Amino acid sequence: MSSAPSGSPAPSDLFRQPVIAAPMAGGASNPRLAAAVSEAGGLGFLAAGYKTTDGMYQEIKQIRGLTSRPFGVNLFMPQPRISDPSAVEVYRQQLAGESTWYDTPLGDPESGRDDGYEAKLAILRDDPVPVVSFTFGCPAPEVLASFARAGTYTVVTVTTPDEAQAARWAGADAVCVQGIEAGGHQGTHRDDPAADGTGIGLLTLIALVRDAVDLPVIATGGLMRGSQIAAVLAAGASAAQLGTAFLVCPESGANPLHKQAMTNPLFVRTELTRAFTGRPARGLVNRFLREHGPYAPAAYPEVHHLTTGLRKAAAQAGDPQGMALWAGQGHRMARALPAADLVDTLVAEWQHTAWQGSEPPEAAERNTAWQDQEDPAGDGGPAGTGRTAAVGGREDS
Ligand SMILES: Cc1cc2nc3c(=O)[nH]c(=O)nc-3n(C[C@H](O)[C@H](O)[C@H](O)COP(=O)(O)O)c2cc1C
């Protein structure tokens, strides 16, 4: 593997194992989950999306009380208005039956579209955290430069090589390459209905992005097993980011019905849908998605605001058929392990795959910085990946 590009620091000090718990807004990511992953040698993330600025700050204070290891905070980029107001009004009328069924009024679609971006930036600049990542767009170069001055490592989610080039141009330290397999929202920089159905699978996207930019790659989408982590590292990623796999951990704050649905044989398929938020997001196919997905408009965050109350009411009523059950394509492989055990298991599986057929080097060698991509041993590394993987145990063990 080639070394990290000049001028772009590799995320060397951020984690001992190349396993990142994806930021998951809506409750799944919380300080307990993120701290457990960071303590286990991976990198935990807080999700600031949908939170108040104070809510974000309180979570940062909490995680600092739980771990001294690095962690990340993820922000939603403000969204331009792309919707036709009359399409939102039509969708509001189409959801009237849901409002009656759940005995809950629909929300105000104009409840805000910037997710408190500027205020959250101000907090993160005043009191820097180790990593900040962005989704739904690319921040201005000045914003990324200000984080660089503060010593914060920045990551921009991308779903195409063009978006990766935009992130490179703006000065991001790394890109989070999100395949079409991913659970939750696609982090596309612009929601373009004309691009529906053109999403790229993770392994192909990693190769395309690596051809386009010389930034470290964090791979995400559908990763549930260490063998898949081995595959994305072999393809050139510096780390793997997993959402659905961590969503079911006991520390995750996801609704228990959401966790159970991942392996419930009632839910066999996932689909990208605008039904819940107006922006394509992958979830388990349930009644709400089936009924409203076909005509839901491209109108984020208006549709998110419209349906928030309905989704809460469905959860309170114990009805997963009305909830947004975000899930990646690998959901059936979810294992409800404590987060630290899941990190250990994933690392063991990754090593097993990567070192098949060759002797792992001694522990001392293995503890060299895993992202040193020069292959000093000259042996091509595990299974021809060219990696000198850090496979040391947890620091506390
Ligand atoms: C419940 C849920 C919430 C998510 N929320 C966010 C978020 O707030 N910010 C973000 O950048 N990505 C979010 N994602 C996407 C993840 O960062 C990641 O790309 C995705 O989970 C990877 O696919 P996987 O779930 O198959 O591992 C979310 C995913 C899920 C499943």
From TrEMBL:
Low complexity: compositionally biased ranges: 385-397
TM region positions: none
CC cofactor: FMN
UniProt keyword annotation of Nucleotide-binding present: yes
Catalytically driven reaction(s): 3 propionate 3-nitronate + 3 O2 + H2O = 3 3-oxopropanoate + 2 nitrate + nitrite + H2O2 + 3 H(+)
Keywords: Detoxification, Flavoprotein, FMN, Monooxygenase, Nucleotide-binding, Oxidoreductase
GO biological process: response to toxic substance
GO molecular function terms attached to this record: nitronate monooxygenase activity; nucleotide binding
The organism's place on the tree of life at top rank: Bacteria
Pfam family, one: NMO
InterPro entries: Aldolase_TIM, NMO
Region Disordered: start-end pairs: 355-397
PANTHER family attached to this UniProt entry: NITRONATE MONOOXYGENASE-RELATED
Family: Belongs to the nitronate monooxygenase family. NMO class I subfamily.
Known role: Nitronate monooxygenase that uses molecular oxygen to catalyze the oxidative denitrification of alkyl nitronates. Acts on propionate 3-nitronate (P3N), the presumed physiological substrate. Probably functions in the detoxification of P3N, a metabolic poison produced by plants and fungi as a defense mechanism.
Protein name as it appears in the record: Probable nitronate monooxygenase
Species per Swiss-Prot/TrEMBL record: Streptomyces qinzhouensis
Lineage, broadest ranks: Bacteria, Bacillati, Actinomycetota, Actinomycetes, Kitasatosporales
